[in-house]
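Comment thread on ticket #2218

A.B. wrote:
> Attaching the input chain for the structure job we discussed in standup.
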Amino acid sequence: MTATPHVLDPQIVEAVRAAQQVMVLSGAGMSAESGVPTFRDAQTGLWEDFDPEDLATPGAWQHDPEFVWAWYAWRIGLVRGVEPNLGHRALAELAQLRPTTIATQNIDDLHERAGSEVLAHLHGSLFRFRCAECGAPYDGAVEVPDKPVERLAPPRCETCGERVRPGVVWFGEDLPLAEFEATVTAIENLSPGDVALVIGTSGVVFPAAGLPAIALAAGATVIEINPQETEISDMAHLHVRAPVAVALPPLVAALRD
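C.D. wrote:
> Ran it. Output below, let me know if you need it in another format.
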């Protein structure tokens, strides 16, 4: 695939080359090219008549935990069936060239599978589980069906015996405080001349949508990578109007030269 002219804008290459620190803020567009089903794309078959907000809430869990768990177990299988795209792999390579910190709104593990360390999963992770009652992390086995099932019994907490829930942030829940604070601290520690790459996020989900403004206030150069204009485009100094798998590999290749 040929990169668009914007991808190798000399200003963008030079900004990243001059940076002492690179902060990556990634959203759904980061994983879209891997074929990760979006929130609503996962609403097929048994769940097609249900709004996602009716499944991804504490109330839905309390009403029918086996039904909700079956949906998340199915989503785990869908994510396991895809691979990191060239954008994920380029960011892993970028970290070999410049100190790079990643905070993502995505609940998949594609950054990690590409070889990156992730500071924070701001909306939680499909692959982290915790007790719905005592909050203890759960590292035991999780059954992943090879086809959709209507109900599936969640594992039981090894500490208190109550049900284990998905480690994602549901509608109406707060972001994980420690991870959000770590992200804010990392952004606030950026200096003028450092770079914040805002990748594949629409900028409409708060409080994560406010993070580019913190980078701007820190004096960092904010670079947006997104095929479309977004709610946070006016905060960015520079833009790459291309998908991540097109934009990032040439950028990293230019840094190697």
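A.B. wrote:
> Thanks. Noting for the ticket: The first helix runs from residue 10 to 18.
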